[in-house]
Structure formats: C-alpha cells, structure tokens
Write a structure and sequence with these properties.
Helix 1 (about 15-25) packs across helix 8, helix 4 (about 60-75) packs parallel to helix 5 (about 90-105) and helix 6 crosses helix 7. With about 190 residues, this protein is an alpha/beta fold. It has helices at about 15-25, 30-40, 45-55, 60-75, 90-105, 120-130, 140-160, 175-185; strands spanning about 5, 30, 80-85, 110-115, 165-170. It binds adenosine monophosphate. The site of adenosine monophosphate has 17 residues, from helix 2 and helix 3.
Length: about 190
C-alpha cells in the first residue's frame, strides 16, 4: 500500500494537491477537516462540539481525532492506499496512527511537507475566504490556525523525519509544477 501524509500549514495547498494525487495514483482520501465540516453541517453531536473550536482556529482534541481515524480505517476495505490530509496534526496523533496502521499490517510510506512562507499563506487563505466562504478563513482565525500549526503540528514532520520518511517540497509555484515534484517522489 502507498500511504501518504500530505502535510503543511493551512493554505499550503494540501486539498488541491490531494485531488490530483488521488486521480493519478488511485488513493483513498481521508481529510479530517472535510469530515469535521460535514459533521458541523449535519449538526451531529461531534459537529456541535467541534464547531466553536474550529471557528476559533484551535485543534479538536487528540482523543476525538484518533477515534475518528480509527473508525475511518475500519470502513476502508480493500484500497490501494490512503492519503491523509490534515491528519496527524500532533505527535500523539502521529503515534496513534502508526499503531493503528500496524494492526492492518501497513505503514506510512512518506510524509510530503509543502513549505510556504507565512505571508503567502495569509494571502491565499483570505482569497479562499472570498471564493469558498469557509467560516474559519478570516484574519483572526487564520492567525490562530498558523500558530497552532507552529506550536503543535510542525513537530509531526520532525517525528517522521526521524523515521527517514520526510520529503520537503517548496510549495510556491504553479499547481502543476508542485504536482510534478510530488509525482516524482511517489513514482
Ligand atoms: P483543515 O480543513 O484540515 O484545515 O481543518 C479545519 C479545522 O478542523 C482545523 O482548524 C481544526 O480545528 C480541525 N481539525 C482538522 N483536522 C484536525 C486534526 N487532525 N486534529 C485536530 N483538529 C483538526
């Protein structure tokens, strides 16, 4: 199986690149942000709990997120591989993911980190706010999301680097240019 973590700060292009990777490599997408937004929309118990946390740009608890991934993996069935988008976002989530994948006799193949300067992230996210109207794409929330990334999420790249699984890509340029670099890593 080819199991990828597509990694980077909010606005680094994970969602866009995920779509292209899925199409080319036939992988299954697990986006915890998309799952949470769906829960919020459907006003489920989890959605009601997550809504305020997300609107503040903070992280939902590890316990909830790990439970969510556990359920998703159980539902998967026979797949070529998985692309994790927006998960893991903390070191405990990364450790839990590795343990869960072991139960399925598989593992993370590579973490691809999209590196984008902070001023560029801000421009992209404010622009996305206009196009998609995502409620957490406003200036204060974006600042918190970038701060959460630095404080809690960046460590996930170090964790996989120690395992020799980190590949870094300069995430500024055309969508095609960046996708070409990702494809070279995965091929
Ligand atoms: P995303 O679409 O990946 O940027 O996620 C949107 C929001 O959902 C984040 O700002 C968090 O509040 C929450 N979220 C998504 N994935 C996770 C995760 N793995 N751990 C904690 N919170 C998450």
């Amino acid at each position: 199986m080819l199991n990828i973590i597509l990694f980077g700060p909010p606005g680094s292009g994970k969602g866009t690149q995920s779509d292209l990777i899925i199409e080319k490599f036939g992988l299954t997408h697990i986006s915890t942000g998309n799952i949470l937004r769906e829960e919020v929309k459907n006003e489920t118990e989890l959605g009601l709990l997550a809504k305020d946390i997300m609107s503040r740009g903070e992280l939902v608890s590890d316990e909830i997120m790990i439970g969510m991934i556990k359920n998703k993996l159980q539902e998967l069935g026979d797949v070529k591989g998985v692309i994790f988008d927006g998960f893991p976002r903390t070191k405990p989530q990364a450790e839990a993911l590795d343990n869960l994948l072991k139960e399925y006799n598989t593992e993370i193949s590579v973490l691809i980190s999209l590196e984008v300067p902070e001023d560029e992230l801000m421009i992209r996210l404010l622009n996305r706010a206009k196009l998609e109207g995502r409620s957490d794409d406003n200036e204060d929330t974006i600042k918190n999301r970038i701060q959460e990334y630095k404080n809690k999420t960046a460590a996930v790249a170090d964790y996989y680097e120690e395992k020799g699984k980190l590949k870094t890509i300069h995430g500024v340029g055309s969508i095609d240019e960046i996708f070409t670099q990702i494809s070279e890593i995965l091929s």
